Amino acid sequence: MAIQSSLGTETIAASSTNETIDVQKDLAMLDASKLRINLADRLKPVPTPENVVFGKHMSDHMLVATYDPSSGWSEPEIKPYGPLLLDPTSSCFHYSTSLFEGMKAYSGPDGESRLFRPELNMARMVRSAERVALPPFDPNELLKLIKRLVQIESRWIPQESGYSLYIRPTIIGTRPYIGMGASDYATLFVVCCPAGLYFRRGAKMLSLMTLGAHVRAWPGGTGGHKISANYAATFLPQQVAAERGYDQVLWLLGDRITEAGAMNFFVVRKRSDGDLDLITAPLDGTVLPGVTRDSVLSLAGAHGHGITLPNLPPSLKIHVQECTFTTSDLSQWAEDGTLIEAFSAGTAVVIVSIGRIGLEGETDIILPKQESGMGPVAEAMCGMITAIQEGREQWSGWSVLCD
Ligand SMILES: *Cc1c(COP(=O)(O)O)cnc(C)c1O
């Protein structure tokens, strides 16, 4: 597995400057072989699947490593879950020097724990750390540590299909100095909790609302990175949408559609030749490069060539269109009857179908109603991705064992 790391260049840069050479060459790298494990004396009760509330029941243990500019990364430790003790001047509290990832562990039919394309999360996390000027780390070492944590917490992975263990790797800037500047101290931690269906599905499809006055991301900004600073400002618009009776915000940049809530957004359009177009915004820096997004696009391209998505005719061609599209396009496509589905994708939800899109809360675009609560393409994608995640279907080495 090859993961891009900025560590290599860091070492070269350090050894080519004379003054700092002695300090920098002793900086320890994040090293999974140095892991210390301190297990909890008393284990918590694991909630039964029907009692799983997302994010509420944290597992018994967490992984922690700290970075100090004089010594580098500490020995990583898996220890009982609990509070962190932080100086009130810590950089993350004032300047949002923090970032996170969201990934899941699944239990396969063989009882083995597995991760889904975790190298993509690790590579994205390296880029996030770089973007907010936090210390670099070796993504391969972090992945080894996460696999070890998942093994230790395997009793927390619900066995039922559709359930998983949500994993939240995080890095916060802990420089204890209120002066403004990059944080050269950091704490990396990974915590886990069981996850079921994020939005209670069934008959209900999600509703979205555009709020042109609030922009999530902009050209030259940080929208393409999973850094904490991107999220604080989204909660007020989210509350506005909720007050107007919509589930999530459909984020715009001018009249261009970018994402929905903290999920990537797709529409399905019927073409005159009978094929389908699967349309999503391009990765131009204003859209988060989702692992689920990439998986949906790959599966669409592979349908009928080596893989058949559930309940779709193998002869059906799905053309992937990563292109700019606007609210006027959506209205036009709804009017001419070619807009047949819209859905959102992300690790937490996997896939969720959209039933209604309120343009500034004034006119509603209504998507075709679906008995199952999901459009055929959304349902096919959800079925295939879940099957690969749970190890029931093999595809391109996307499911990775935690051994
Ligand atoms: C995390 C996230 C996504 C989804 O990414 P996945 O890797 O599929 O979980 C999409 N949009 C935003 C803004 C996100 O934060």
TrEMBL record:
GO MF annotation: an example: L-valine-2-oxoglutarate transaminase activity
Keyword terms, alphabetized: Amino-acid biosynthesis, Aminotransferase, Branched-chain amino acid biosynthesis, Pyridoxal phosphate, Transferase
One GO cellular component, as annotated: mitochondrion
SUPFAM superfamilies to which the protein is assigned, alphabetical: D-aminoacid aminotransferase-like PLP-dependent enzymes (SSF56752)
Modified residue annotations for N6-(pyridoxal phosphate)lysine: 226
Keyword Protein transport carried by entry: no
EC number: 2.6.1.42
Coiled coil: none
Lineage: superkingdom: Eukaryota
Catalytic activity line of the entry: L-leucine + 2-oxoglutarate = 4-methyl-2-oxopentanoate + L-glutamate; L-valine + 2-oxoglutarate = 3-methyl-2-oxobutanoate + L-glutamate; L-isoleucine + 2-oxoglutarate = (S)-3-methyl-2-oxopentanoate + L-glutamate
Pfam families recorded: Aminotran_4
InterPro entries in alphabetical order: Aminotrans_IV, Aminotrans_IV_CS, Aminotransferase-like, B_amino_transII, BCAT-like_C, BCAT-like_N, BCAT_family
CDD domains noted in UniProt: BCAT_beta_family
Keyword Amino-acid biosynthesis on entry: yes
Cofactor: pyridoxal 5'-phosphate
Listed Gene3D superfamilies: 3.30.470.10, D-amino Acid Aminotransferase, subunit A, domain 2
Biological processes annotated in GO: L-leucine biosynthetic process; L-valine biosynthetic process
Family matches, as PROSITE patterns: AA_TRANSFER_CLASS_4
Membership in a protein family: Belongs to the class-IV pyridoxal-phosphate-dependent aminotransferase family.
Protein name per Swiss-Prot or TrEMBL: Branched-chain-amino-acid aminotransferase
Species per Swiss-Prot/TrEMBL record: Hermanssonia centrifuga
